[in-house]
Structures are given as structure tokens and as C-alpha cells.
Amino acid sequence: MNIQLNTSDEDIEKIYQSLNLNGMHCIESSIPKNLIDEFRNEINEYLNENGRKYFSKINPADEPNSAFSSIKDSRSFVTLINKLASKALNRKIEDSESLNVLRVITGKNAESQTLQFHYDAYAVTALIPIFIPEGKAEESGHLVAWLNFRKFRNMQIINMIEKVLFQNRFTRKFLSFLVFRNPEKYMHKMIPGNIYLFWGYRTLHANLGVSKDFLRSTLLFHGGDVHQDSFLDRIVKEKRHSSERKNDEVKL
Length: 252
Fold this sequence. Notes:
This protein has 252 residues and is α+β, with helices and mostly antiparallel strands. Helix content is 38%, strand content 21%. The protein is built from 8 helices and 9 strands. The protein has helices spanning 9-22, 33-50, 69-73, 75-89, 156-166, 169-181, 183-186, 231-245; strands spanning 24-27, 55-58, 98-106, 122-131, 143-146, 187-188, 195-198, 204-207, 215-225. Helix 1 (9-22) packs across helix 4 (75-89). 36% of the residues are buried.
């Protein structure tokens, strides 16, 4: 079953303005329940075979036999992402300028994924919740974010400097301190069935902790490679992807 979204110029403009004004836009009840169930079955299959532990998988939506392929097969979903990225970056966006990542947080190594603040390399991020545990917010892995915290950068070197300044252990500890002082200000609760859109490149974001006894899973779809021709960007992405592949020992 494919996802059907409105992609008229009027609808795209409304979402674009919402992202610029509010930093996040929620498309409610946009993922059918039976499709969420298919996603969950695939994840549970993996966990049953390999044990409850954190893993991430790069581009599961590109695999024809995976339930997640329905995301990439949805022309309206891909069109929405491309049009938003095109408006943000003021250029044509190709389908190839995308990345999707499945993240599953559970088990004894779940704590390692707590409050790892970062900026995305892509203009638009669509967050699709699959499993969001019920319980205390600080144990359920909800999104925390400084929405639209910076602008799109023309120069990759500026982007790299900002990443160094914000994506390090000391800054992350300080940001975590601010989050726990006023969680309602930065926390965004995720509900399966919704799609949450934000400017991933502009937004400093992470997830709260997840109890090892809980299961938290999301699919992230990124569109619009901001520094697509940058040699530095390719190095950073390959390092990131290499790290993710270490958590992808067995294909779903």
C-alpha cells in the first residue's frame, strides 16, 4: 500500500511556510495502520533473530522486498520532499538526493543513542514514528530540537565549523542540561501514523533516552543534499555511513 499525500502547489506552499514559521509540520494520520503493522512485523522479525539491541539500517526503503519500499514507491511522498527541498535550496532536486535510515533503539546499548545532538546534511527531514513507547518522556525517546537554529549555508566550510562546535561531547552535555531544565520547550512527542517534517539541515536535534526494556523505532527520510558537490561532505557522509553499517550486520 502506497502513501497518498497532497502535493499541489498550494499544499506545498502551506507546508513550506509552516516549516519556516514554526520549524516543524505534522501531516496527521498519513501512514495507514496496516502499513505501520508491516513495518513493525519486519522490525520484530529482525529482533527475534538477532536479539534486542540497537541497530540502524541505511536505505531500507530501497530494498524491493522490504515493507519500507512503500515509502520510496510513493510518488506523492517523494514529490513532497523534493518540492520542499527545491523551494528551500532554490534549485531542482533529483530523486537521487535522498537518504533513508531506519533506527531501532532497545536493549542494553540503547543508552548510547541518548541526546546525540546533530545537524542533518539534507535540507528536509521526514520523521516517521513506528514504535514509540508509552511511559515517562525521558525514557520514551521523543524528539528534542532547536528548530530552525541556523540558516542554510552556501559554504561547506561554515557548515563543518558549526558541526564541530555543536556535535561534540561537551556541547551535547550543555544542551542536555538545557533540555532537562525545560523539557516542554524542546520536546516533540511522536505519534505513529503521523509524518513529522522539519528542516533537518537547519535544526539541531536528537532523541531523549530510551529504557532498555522499551522499543523505539523511526524511519528518517532525508531529501535535498545541501552540499552535494563538496568533497568534505562526501568524506563526512562516508564516515557516518560506515558507522551505521556496523549496526547493520544482518539484512532485514
